[in-house]
Design brief:
single chain, alpha+beta, six-stranded antiparallel sheet, six-stranded mixed sheet, 21 helices, flat
């Protein structure tokens, strides 16, 4: 960070507005801030620190205490700093909390703290990053510079009385500063990642140990050796049970085959009864089928003579249709004769009218003789009209220009007035844009807060549901766990009772070995024995309930975490919004809308102002050229008036040579056109009448011919009709039908015939089929009797029950063996996984301990890296300290481990060449401490900038401390700073030392007075 320009107002001892342009001091200046005690030298550094972070360099004063007592009450206290970061330039403005006069009325009101941050991108206003929020501005500065205010004070600014802080800091404080400067956070993240990885593996190891215990517990085994012993004992029992199961299965299958054969025989007897009944039912349907056959036969006979009936009907219809055609043709013949007579009369009338044509042609010749004179008259009139138009246009042009001139004068006055009004309105545009950005950001954050609050309601509801679900699952698990214990207890009691039943007097007990059995266990008569399957099922239900309870707990925990994050986000936004957090969201929306509306209106007015300015310039140019244009138009109007008078005289002379009715070309042409149309109309009427007569006569001939042809067709059709009628009557008489009605009743459509025929054939086929099936079944069952299914089923039931009993015993043995085999496999896999996890923990656990400083000298990975960087810093610092101390002192890193759990690795000592020993830096005197702190700051600046990714420390301010140096040490210190300045850094020194004022050509002189201080830049 390098300051470019500082502007302060009513700040500290500065009552007015003071501006310090650091650019006037050169690109990388070494300058002195000089002035008497209390004049405000340190206030310049306070202003820089306040502009960036909102705090003074020493943190002794609150921002509200920075106002100058000499300042005018209407002047706000503020600090504006332009600064450079690499290739980017920024500007920050801060206003502390202060009292100011009210905008309306008397008295004062509290001006709240504000901060704006811009990126200077070459435009007049720059890009606004932070509009108003003090917290947002401070956070953004921290992000840009890479330092918080404490770190800024320790590495870029050595305040008065604070220069020993970095020198005296312990390892933990120095680790934070160096970690930020060198950006070594990646090593911290490696430490955390290794620590988390090792913790995860450690948890996995413990989980697998519990898993092994759970596997053995589920199988009711105490150890893997016991699993092997039980497996070995159960194998012979499983083989014997398998053989017994196979024998019982064969007997059951034999009984099933006998039952199947008996069922098949019984089914054939049942089928014979069914088919005999169906045959009897089918035979009873024969009378109905015979009726259908008779109806089908009648339809077939009617179909044989149907074509004769259809021919007879067709000829009847043709005869009726021809009669209708003959009547229509007779009517058309009468109409054609009437039309021919009417057309003959029209021809005679047209011939009489055509006699007028000869007289009309003579009149046409007479009118054609006026055409040439009328053409001359028309040309003269056109010339006259043109001159009239030119004269009118010239006069109108002159008058229009006069009106334009006056309109422009009026418009210019209006535009000037509007321009002034808009200029006054636009004075608040810059302020309103800042206000708009502030309101926009406030509204955005308030909307986020509103969304988070709504989300919190949902999260609380969800957390309550999940908590209730967890309690429900926990209650279910507790009940099932209790039930499982009870079932397992009953199972053990039942097993004891079964064992007691097998005890015999004088024989040893398989449990305790005693040959006496005074009180053997007895099973309760009213309770069934609990099986091992029931125990396993109860434990499975318990495990399932436990898993459900754990899942519910995890979901509840996740909901609680999500709710906590939501609360934290809400609290952060509420701190940022301050009193706005409780204002209704709609109020902020309305406020932002009002501000937006005002800004939009002002921007629109700004565009209107530009348009007005351009129009005003245009109007002034038009008015200056309009005077000459008006003189030219007046001269042109006089010339056109003379030409108009000459044209009017020529037109009047030509009018006297032509009759008044035909002076206009249009009137003459209209008269000629009417004559031509009359002649043409009379000729066309005669031609049309003759053509119409010919057409009507042709239509009369056609009608006569058509009637004659139809009369001939009627004679032929009468003969055909008589023959078709005779054939039909003869066929009906020879058929089996009594009359035509009987014939029509017998008619049947083809689909119906096919359906009826198929129905009859299907009946006959089914009847024959049933007869064949009954005959075959009677032959197959001859000599057989129906089987006794009750006895056969009883035998099968007995064998099945025996098989199931044997199979149940075998299954229990097999399930137990399979369970133990699975347990053995799980144990083997668990041991392998356990070994792998322990091997991984050997690696990651060791790495985590080393990286997190849990071994040896208790130095973490990040602190080790920083210790190397500190060595580099101390090498550079020692070079300068040795020079300034005339070869006596060097700064070295203390390598001994700190006592107790205190962080180690970044402590410093001073090596004293006079004694040959190292001693704490706290033993240095005031002047020696200043030289050591200055050397450390300069060395740190060099090393940080030499590492890629480090923060660029291209500015250093030093407030006092030089007065503690002797002249020779002072000279060496100044020489050191000059060398540092030559490497591209800005260095500012505040000091009263007279020698510094004499040696340094660049100065900022702070001049104090009773009414406030001022700053003057000195460049010699």
């Amino acid at each position: 960070m390098k300051p470019v320009k500082l502007t302060i107002q009513a700040f500290g001892p500065f009552a007015g507005n003071e501006s310090i342009d650091f650019g006037l001091l050169g690109p990388n200046p070494l300058f002195l801030i000089n002035g008497p005690t209390g004049s405000g030298k340190s206030s310049i550094l306070d202003a820089i620190c306040f502009a960036l972070y909102g705090q003074s360099t020493g943190a002794e004063r609150e921002p509200s205490q920075m106002r100058c007592d000499h300042a005018d009450i209407n002047m706000l206290t503020e600090a504006i700093l332009d600064f450079n970061l690499g290739t980017e330039n920024y500007r920050i403005r801060r206003i502390p909390v202060q009292e100011r006069p009210k905008s309306k009325g008397e008295g004062t009101t509290t001006q709240q703290a504000e901060a704006q941050l811009w990126q200077l991108d070459g435009t007049d206003e720059g890009k606004l990053i932070v509009a108003k929020s003090v917290t947002d501005a401070t956070n953004e500065v921290k992000r840009l510079i890479g330092l918080d205010v404490e770190q800024f004070r320790q590495v870029m600014l050595l305040p008065q009385g604070k220069f020993r802080e970095l020198l005296m800091a312990d390892s933990k404080e120095r680790e934070q500063i160096f970690g930020q400067l060198f950006r070594t956070g990646i090593y911290k993240r490696i430490e955390e990642a290794l620590k988390n990885q090792a913790a995860g593996i450690r948890q996995e190891v413990e989980r697998h140990r519990n898993q092994i215990k759970g596997i053995l517990h589920g199988a009711e085994m105490a150890s893997e050796a016991e699993v092997d012993e039980v497996l070995e004992a159960l194998q012979p029992e499983l083989v014997a049970a398998s053989e017994e199961k196979e024998q019982a299965n064969q007997k059951m299958l034999q009984a099933a085959r006998v039952r199947d054969q008996a069922q098949a025989l019984k089914q054939r007897f049942d089928n014979l009864d069914t088919k005999q009944k169906a045959l009897s039912d089918k035979a009873a349907q024969k009378p109905e089928v015979d009726k259908l056959q008779h109806r089908l036969d009648s339809a077939l006979q009617a179909e044989k003579i149907r074509h004769l009936y259809d021919n007879y009907r067709a000829k009847t219809k043709e005869k009726a249709k021809l009669f209708e055609q003959i009547q229509a043709c007779q009517t058309a013949l009468q109409l054609a004769a009437a039309n021919e007579l009417e057309a003959k009369q029209s021809v005679d009338a047209a011939k009489q009218a055509y006699a007028e044509v000869e007289a009309l042609k003579h009149k046409r010749i007479e009118l054609q003789q006026y055409r040439d004179r009328i053409a001359e008259l028309a040309e003269a009139r056109v010339t006259l009209q043109n001159r009239q138009k030119e004269l009118t246009a010239a006069r109108k042009a002159f008058d229009a220009r006069k009106l334009e001139q006056q309109a422009l004068i009026n418009e210019l006055a209006d535009k000037d007035k509007a321009f002034v009004e808009i200029s006054r309105e636009l004075e608040s545009l810059a302020t309103m844009r800042i206000e708009w950005e502030a309101q926009r950001r406030n509204l955005q954050q308030r909307q986020q807060l509103e969304d988070l609050r709504n989300e919190q309601t949902r999260l609380r509801h969800n957390e309550s549901k999940l908590a209730a679900a967890f309690e429900t699952q926990k209650a279910a698990y507790d009940a099932l766990e209790k039930e499982a214990r009870q079932i397992e207890l009953h199972w053990h009691l039942g097993q004891a009772a079964l064992l007691a039943e097998a005890l015999q007097g004088g024989q040893p007990c398989p449990v305790c070995g005693s040959i006496e059995h005074p009180k053997p266990a007895v099973a309760a008569n009213d309770e069934a024995l609990v099986t091992k399957h029931q125990v396993d099922q109860a434990r499975a239900d318990e495990n399932q309930a436990r898993n459900l309870m754990q899942n519910a707990k995890e979901k509840w925990d996740a909901a609680l975490n999500e709710l906590a994050v939501n609360r934290k986000d809400i609290e952060q936004l509420e701190r940022q919004l301050e009193q706005l957090a409780e204002q209704p969201l709609q109020a902020l929306v309305d406020t932002f809308a009002n501000v937006s509306e005002t800004v939009d209106r002002l921007v629109e007015r700004q565009a209107q102002q530009k348009t007005l300015g351009a129009r005003i310039d245009t109007i002034k140019g038009l008015l200056s050229s309009m005077i000459e244009t008006l003189a030219e138009l007046e001269t042109k109007a006089a010339s056109v008036n003379e030409q108009f008078i000459q044209a009017r005289s020529n037109s009047e002379q030509l009018e006297k040579l032509i009759p008044e009715d035909y002076r206009e070309p249009k009137a003459l042409e209209q008269a000629l056109s009417q004559l031509n149309r009359r002649i043409t109309a009379l000729s066309d009427a005669l031609t049309q009448a003759e053509a119409d007569y010919a057409a009507k006569h042709s239509e009369l001939d056609k009608a006569s011919s058509k009637l004659e042809a139809l009369q001939q067709q009627r004679e032929t059709l009468e003969s055909q009709y008589s023959e078709a009628e005779a054939q039909w009557r003869d066929a009906l008489a020879r058929s089996a039908f009594a009359d035509a009605d009987a014939f029509h009743s017998a008619l049947m459509a083809d689909p119906e015939q096919h359906s009826l025929k198929a129905e009859i054939e299907a009946y006959r086929d089914e009847l024959v089929g049933l007869q064949e099936v009954v005959k075959q079944l009677q032959a197959d069952l001859a000599g057989h009797a129906p089987p006794d299914m009750q006895a056969i089923e009883g035998q099968l039931t007995e064998q099945t029950a025996r098989y199931r009993k044997v199979e149940e015993s075998w299954r229990k043995l097999e399930e137990r063996v399979n369970q133990l085999v699975r347990v053995k496999d799980k144990l083997t896999q668990a041991r392998v996984t356990q070994a792998e996890l322990e091997a991984r923990y050997e690696v990651y656990g060791t790495l985590s301990d080393v990286a997190n400083g849990q071994t040896g000298d208790k130095i973490s990975l990040q602190r080790f890296v920083l210790s190397v960087l500190l060595d580099d810093v101390l090498i550079q610092a020692s070079e300068r300290l040795t020079l300034m101390s005339k070869g006596r002192y060097r700064l070295v890193r203390k390598e001994d481990r700190a006592k107790g759990n205190k962080a180690s690795g970044l402590e410093m000592e001073v090596e004293d060449a006079y004694t040959g020993k190292n001693r704490p830096v706290a033993t240095l005197s005031g002047g020696e401490s200043f030289m050591a702190a200055l050397a450390l700051a300069l060395g740190l600046s060099d090393v940080v900038q030499s590492y890629a990714g480090g923060i660029k420390l291209d500015t250093l301010f030093i407030d006092e401390g030089f007065g503690s140096l002797d002249p020779e040490s002072l000279d060496l210190a100044i020489r050191t700073l000059i060398d540092l300045q030559a490497s591209g850094r800005m260095i500012g020194i505040i000091s009263h030392v007279t020698e510094l004022k004499e040696q340094m050509a660049l100065r900022l002189d702070v001049i104090g007075s009773r009414t406030g201080s001022s700053v003057r830049t000195i460049t010699i």
